[in-house]
Amino acid sequence: MHEMVHVWQHQLGYWVKLHGMLLHPGSLWGLLGDPYQYTLDATKKLQDYNMEQQGDIIADHYALSSGLSALSNSGRQVRDRSLFNLVLADFLKDPSNANARP
Fold first, then answer.
1. I need a labelling partner for 94 at 20 to 30 A (CA). Which of 20, 84, 86, 100 fits?
2. Over residues 87-99, mean pLDDT
3. Sign of torsion, CA 79 31 23 96?
4. Residues involved in catalysis
């Protein structure tokens, strides 16, 4: 599911390869934190998270909605599952809206 989010991002015009190249070297050199780690915040929307966080958020939401456990370490830390619905509200309403990209 995580990788399918990158397909969705690309289909909406997001430059996945370029942003991935910029995001990952920073984490390798210690300039940035883990690009996958996220903390859900009720005041944020999906577009407020980077491309890797979006992949994990949507994958975790899908897993939890399917009766499974969250897949990522970040997702397993979420105690209030309604936060997923708040963060993903606009995306779930209209996945074709390019404003949901990072």
1. 20
2. 96
3. positive
4. 3
